[in-house]
Amino acid sequence: MAEIxxxxxxxxxxxxxxxxxxxxxxxxxxxxxxxxxALHGADRASGVPxxxxxxARRLLVEDLPSFVWADPAELTVYPAVLxxxxxxxxGADRTGVEEAVDQSTADFERAMTDPGNLTWPRWYARLxxxxxxxxxxxxxxxxxxxxxxxxxxxxxxxxxxxxxxxAVADVLLAEVLTRAYVRDAEASPAAGPLLADHDVARGxxxxxxxxxxxxxxxxxxxxxxxxxxxxxxxxxxxxxxALADALLGEHLDYYxxxxxPLPPPALCFTDxxxxxGPERSxxxxxxxxxxxxxxxxxxVAEGAADPSAPAxxxxxxxxxxxxxxxxxxxxxxxxxxxxxxxxxxxxxxxHLVYTLYQRGCSAESVARRAAEFEDxxxxxxxxxxxxxxxxxxxxxxxxPTAGELARLLGTPxxxxxxxxxxxxxxxxxxxxxxxxxxxxxxFRRGDAFGLGPRGCAxxxxxxxxxxxxxxxxxxxxxxxxxxxxxxxxxxPPAAARRVxxxxxxxxGDGDVAWSALLGAIGSVNRGTSDAAATRGLLDVLDxxxxxxxxxxxxxxxxxxxARAEETLRRSGEPVAPGxxxxxxxxxxxxxxxxxxxxxxxxxxxxxxxxxxxxxxGAAALVAAMNAADPHETARVLTxxxxxxx
Length: 645
Fold this sequence. Notes:
This protein has 29 helices and three strands. By secondary structure, it is mainly alpha-helical. The protein has a three-stranded antiparallel β-sheet with strand order 1-3-2.
């Protein structure tokens, strides 16, 4: 079929009239350009498809980077073919096409060399050419495929990336072929139909494979769809993609923006001492469908190595398998036929996995999470607080004592009756956690549960697949202060504290580092509804560790000034009256008010007490707060019945 379909595009006549396009790469370029133009409906009345500016742009920046592989030295041929076609026509059409080609050539070259545009056929065509395999010899191509036992993955990419891109490219080419067949069937062109009935009868997929073989390597697409399909897994072969979608949904529910980074993980355990489940086994040789080495082809590591896992051969394939394992466990709890013991919280499995990572992979409390699911009141300051992981003990779950529950929830007065009421939900949630822990990727010790190192790596892998920014341990140390502060402002306080502390240490923990960090906290998001959350980072930092000279230099700062004054006074440093602006003092009062915790009456009392000590009373204090941060002023004071207008 490869030599049958699209034989009436004028290719042979064009090659005869343009002898400069005679090499194998040039012939492939002519075939692809003429074929795609014709499939898109270009006029063939002159014997060859007539390009338009829009079609020329589409071919260069969309179609060719999806369906064709060309060595870097061959890239210039494709725009040259379009220019040669344009020269066959006169007037504005020729000028427009030439201008479109000139404007799109740089984008075309970038797209053709962008790893993000690689499909399985394009990737393997690149590899086999690099090894000197004759891309026009289907026997040589098949023999090369047969020597591969594992999936080599390009540097900086994942199998899921190529699987997704290939699936999209397959759909796009099938649509182009289908439209071309229908168009010719409705009005047969004088130049003849592009696809005969007997071609289409074998299936659009077979036609697409035939064309892709001409444009990448002979027989390659058919091989990857047939006996060597394990070398080109599709989305359906990667179960963890479904969980990756669910994790992306959780991220958007939390932050509303895929670009919001998550904190780098700080694992509680090492591989040797943590509750990881079974010991890792050595990577089996020759198992189909894994990143590795075969037939002299180098399997390039899948993205940056995760420092939480040892750098051993096959580590990336192992992470992918772990992701599949975790996804299968989640599906067993949340799918159409959930496990009998999934209980009322089985549907929360994906949410639990996400929040464990979102906490920076710190351990969580089963009882506290069950209390939240049951709408119990939990102190906002403790919602994301890490919990201590006890030594291994009985695998049976026991709800914490009433006193421990009071500490976990930040709710004094929790008694035995409350503990008894929470016992059922906590045990039901522990059952779900234990189902996840059976994978060896999640652990539970007593009331504490979390992600082990492998589980953390697997979740990070899935989030990265869907484009969430997931820096690895230590990566944020290289960030500038402003983007670090913008990210940390929405992280759980414990994770933000750890990352900011590490950043300061990495930058010398001196005047320069502290000035940059505190300056960013005082400027990032200022004047927006996120300003208060950003100022909240002042509470997670140990300001007593800041150099006194830096704090003194910030006394006049409208955001940080009052906090700098407090810290200096606590250390015995004098601060002259009037050095701190009223705006900064008003913000300090506003941020100290209980905006969420406690009954409205006690919160109103806190405001009245602060207003009584403010020069000019409540009206003056509200005015100063409004001037400093109207968004937080309205959020905190309006529920208290205080007029903020």
